[in-house]
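Hello forum,

I keep getting stuck at the same step: I have a sequence, I want structure tokens, and every attempt I make locally crashes halfway through. Rather than fight my setup again tonight, could one of you with a working pipeline run this one for me? It's a single chain of 242 residues.
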Amino acid sequence: MYSKHSKNLKELSATIKNTEKAIKQALKFENDIEAKMHTNIHSFLIGAWMEVSFYKLIHEAQFSQDDRDLVLLNANSLEQKWKHVLNWAFAKAFAIPINGRNFSSLDIKSKLGRTNQVRYEDILNFINRDINEIILIRNKIAHGQWYYTFNTNVDSPEVRVQQLIHSNNYFKSKERLEKAKLIIEMIIKISTSPRTFERDFDTVYAKIETLPQKYSRESYEKNVEIMVNKFKRAEEWKQRNR
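Reply #2:
Ran it on my machine without issues. Output:
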């Protein structure tokens, strides 16, 4: 199963890269409508990438069948699955016995040392904020709610997600993808090599915290301006040298 999930992830990653090329092409031609369309597709693909990454991880980390059952038990959403795999990873790393009764955030956290409690809480906050945002956007776009978004019963607007989609751009979507990769990197390290996790935690955490500045609205607008001007100069050069 690991190889199958890896293949799916590889295909998704290639499609994400091709979608990024399409976004850049649209921005270069100042085609805002096409850029927005491809950005929504990009955000949808990131959500799919998150889901396949989850299933790849539970095979990569050599979960037993009982472990997989425990992680998937009562996980009614992709966000909950990531929380469960985080619990499993910390429990495995620090020899905390787990079962269906104690497999909760508070119980696992209470059995960790103070430093790792803080690390656990940091990663949990990333899941609650960043992974949750990716999943919310993916779900709305998958249900055709590209402009107006609604609640589960589709009888009332869901303003928060609507604002996320309206304010979305290539850089913001790219920031979400980079954050997701780093969060998953943390979880893989804690589940496969606790020493490496403890050694690298601060470095990976710092990378996550610097991404909002790297992919800020100002950086996005400046980057688009550079692409447009470069394209215009190239076109002018072609005209002069015909």
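Residues 32-60 form the longest helix (29 residues). If your local run keeps crashing, start a new thread with the error log.
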